[in-house]
Design goal:
By secondary structure, this protein is α/β, with parallel strands linked by helices. About 15% of the residues lie in helices and about 35% in strands. A hairpin with a 5-residue loop joins strand 8 (about 120-125) and strand 9. Pfam families: Glyoxalase (PF00903).
């Protein structure tokens, strides 16, 4: 049996602002934007080439026994690309505030590209949910 990670809920304060950021700023495709019950809206977006989407939800009740995440509290969301410089240029072109390309070196984070699997950039959405982008040596389908 396969267990596939297909959707990650991203807690946000303003659904329309976040939809615009992810769709227009990050280039994610809008898959779903609908009210599924009175007062409950789900927006699902997918990064280009990804099999995993993000979900922005408004009015969605917490499941008993599972605490909610505050808007801006997500950390460690990571995307992979095969050309980190092109990814950074695309984000900058779309007016996303993004870090310079960095790598982990002897003294911690250092500017510039690193070796294989060691080139990153960072950005946050309007609520502060933190993303990293890592350069992969080949597309996922070839790994």
């Amino acid at each position: 049996m396969e267990w596939t990670l297909e959707v990650v809920r991203v807690p946000v304060t303003d659904l329309d602002r976040s939809k615009k950021f992810y769709a227009e700023g990050c280039g994610f495709a809008v898959d779903v934007d609908q009210e599924v019950a009175p007062g409950v809206r789900i927006i699902q977006l997918t990064p280009p080439g990804s099999r995993c989407s993000i979900a922005l939800m408004g009015g969605f009740p917490d499941h008993p026994g599972q605490p909610s995440a505050a808007p801006g509290s997500l950390r460690g969301l990571q995307l992979c690309v095969t050309d980190i410089a092109a990814a950074r240029a695309a984000l900058v072109e779309r007016s996303v505030a993004v870090s310079e390309i960095q790598h982990v070196g002897a003294s911690g984070w250092e500017d510039g590209r690193g070796g294989e699997w060691n080139s990153f950039l960072f950005f946050s959405d309007p609520d502060g949910n933190a993303w990293s982008v890592q350069e992969a040596p080949s597309p996922l389908s070839q790994r």
